[in-house]
TrEMBL record:
Coiled coil residues, start to end: none
Signal peptide (from-to): none
Pfam families: Amidase_2 (PF01510)
Entry-linked InterPro entries: Amidase/PGRP_sf, Amidase_domain
Ranges where the N-acetylmuramoyl-L-alanine amidase domain occurs: 27-183
Region (Disordered): 168-187
SUPFAM superfamilies recorded: N-acetylmuramoyl-L-alanine amidase-like
Protein name (record): Peptidoglycan recognition family protein
Length: 365
C-alpha cells in the first residue's frame, strides 16, 4: 500500500526528473479529499483535455466546471512540455473503472480489457491531463510526450514502482470503458510505458542519447518565457497585426514589465511557441487567422518580413472567441532575426482582442 506523495515530495520528484514545473495558484490545497479517500495510490493515469490553449486548459483543470468540480487532475502538461500543478490530493480525473485493471497495475502485469466500471480510480491514481483536442488529428509534440514520460517516471521512481514491469502508467482508455484518451498523432501508451521503463534504468537526470557523465553534460538549458499584453487591441479587418507584449515571465525571475515590443525571440534557436487570444464581437462565420513569422534586418536597412509559417484560421459561430496557435521551428542566424506572432481578422467590422498570451520554449543552437 503506497501513501500519496506530499506536495513537496511530488514537486521535488518532478524537478529531479527534469520536468519544467509551474505551481498554479493554491494547488497544494486544491483537492476533493472531503468527498472520498485519497490513497493508497498505485499508478499514474494519462488523459487529454479536449481543449486548446495552455491558459484555458490550466484554469479548467484547476476549477473544474458546473458538472464536475476541480481539480480535474494533478498536473496539466502543455504542448511545450511544461507541467502546471493544479491539485494535490483526490482529483476528479479517473472516475469509476475496472477493478481487474487496478489489480494488474498493482501486480505490474499485462493489462486486461477494461469492461467494468466498479472501482474508484480517483482514490488510486495520480492524473495528468495533456493539452490536446483528442480528435485523433491534433498532434502531440515531442516535448509534450517527453514530459508525459518524465512526469510518470518521476512518480514511479518516488514510489519504487516499475521494478517488475512497466504497467504502473496507464491511459484513461485502459481504465474506463468508452474512454479514448490519450489519442492523437505522436502518442501511444505502449510507447510511453516503454520509455518510462527505460528511464527507470538510469538516474533521474538522464536524457535519451546522453552518454556523458553527469558532471560533463552540457550546461545549456532550454529557455522558457511567458508573455502577456495587458491592454486590449482593436484589429482592422484585413490587416495583419504584429502583437506587441508588455510583460514577460521567466523562471527564477518571475514577472517583469517591458516597453511594448514585438520580439519574442532573437538569435539562432530551435523553438516551440504557443500563443493565444480572446476576441469579442465576432459575427457568425467570421474568421480569425494566427501565424508565427520571422523578421530580418540587413545592415543599413529596415526590418522586413523574411518568413511566415503556415496559419491557423478558426471560424467562429458568433460572440466570444478563444483561439490558440502552436508552431515549432528554427530561428537562424544572429540577432538580426526576430520571432514575432501575428493575428488577422476578416469581415467588415473592427474586432477587439482583450487577452493576448504566449508561451515560448527555446534551445540555443
Amino acid at each position: 500500500m503506497a501513501t500519496p506523495l506530499s506536495a513537496d515530495r511530488l514537486l521535488a520528484a518532478l524537478r529531479a526528473e527534469g520536468v519544467r514545473v509551474v505551481e498554479h495558484r493554491s494547488w497544494r490545497s486544491n483537492n476533493r479529499n472531503a468527498k472520498g479517500p485519497w490513497g493508497p495510490v498505485h499508478g499514474v493515469m494519462i488523459h487529454h483535455t479536449v481543449t486548446s490553449g495552455t491558459d484555458a486548459s490550466v484554469r479548467l483543470c484547476y476549477d473544474g466546471h458546473s458538472a464536475l468540480p476541480g481539480p480535474l487532475c494533478h498536473g496539466v502538461i502543455a504542448k511545450d512540455g511544461t507541467v502546471y500543478l493544479v491539485g494535490n490530493g483526490r482529483a476528479n480525473h479517473a472516475g469509476l473503472g475496472d477493478g481487474d485493471v487496478l489489480a494488474a497495475v498493482i501486480a505490474e502485469r499485462a493489462l486486461p480489457a477494461d469492461n467494468e466500471a466498479d472501482t474508484d480510480g480517483n482514490a488510486r491514481f495520480y492524473g495528468f491531463e495533456a493539452v490536446n483536442l483528442g480528435d485523433g488529428r491534433d498532434p502531440w509534440p515531442a516535448a509534450q510526450v517527453e514530459a508525459v514520460v518524465r512526469a510518470s517516471a518521476a512518480i514511479l521512481r518516488a514510489h519504487g514502482w516499475g521494478k517488475a514491469g512497466d504497467t504502473s502508467v496507464i491511459g484513461h482508455s485502459e481504465w474506463q470503458p468508452g474512454k479514448v484518451d490519450p489519442r492523437g498523432p505522436g502518442i501511444t501508451m505502449r510507447d510511453v510505458r516503454r520509455r518510462v521503463a527505460e528511464r527507470l534504468k538510469h538516474p533521474a537526470d538522464w536524457s535519451p542519447g546522453d552518454t556523458n557523465p553527469p558532471n560533463e553534460r552540457p550546461k545549456e538549458a532550454p529557455m522558457h518565457l511567458y508573455y502577456e499584453r495587458r491592454n486590449p487591441v482593436t484589429l482592422t479587418p484585413g490587416d495583419w497585426y504584429t502583437i506587441t507584449w508588455d510583460r514577460v515571465w521567466a523562471p527564477e525571475k518571475g514577472w517583469s514589465d517591458r516597453d511594448l515590443a514585438q520580439t519574442l525571440l532573437k538569435g539562432e534557436h530551435t523553438f516551440s511557441l504557443d500563443f493565444a487570444i480572446r476576441a469579442e464581437g465576432l459575427a457568425r462565420g467570421q474568421e480569425i487567422q494566427l501565424r508565427v513569422a520571422r523578421n530580418h534586418r540587413r545592415p543599413g536597412q529596415e526590418w522586413a518580413r523574411a518568413k511566415s509559417w503556415p496559419i491557423s484560421s478558426p471560424v467562429h459561430d458568433g460572440g466570444r472567441l478563444h483561439a490558440a496557435h502552436h508552431w515549432q521551428g528554427h530561428l537562424p542566424g544572429s540577432d538580426d532575426n526576430r520571432l514575432v506572432a501575428e493575428v488577422l481578422a476578416t469581415g467588415s467590422a473592427p474586432i477587439q482582442i482583450d487577452e493576448l498570451t504566449a508561451s515560448l520554449l527555446a534551445w540555443p543552437a
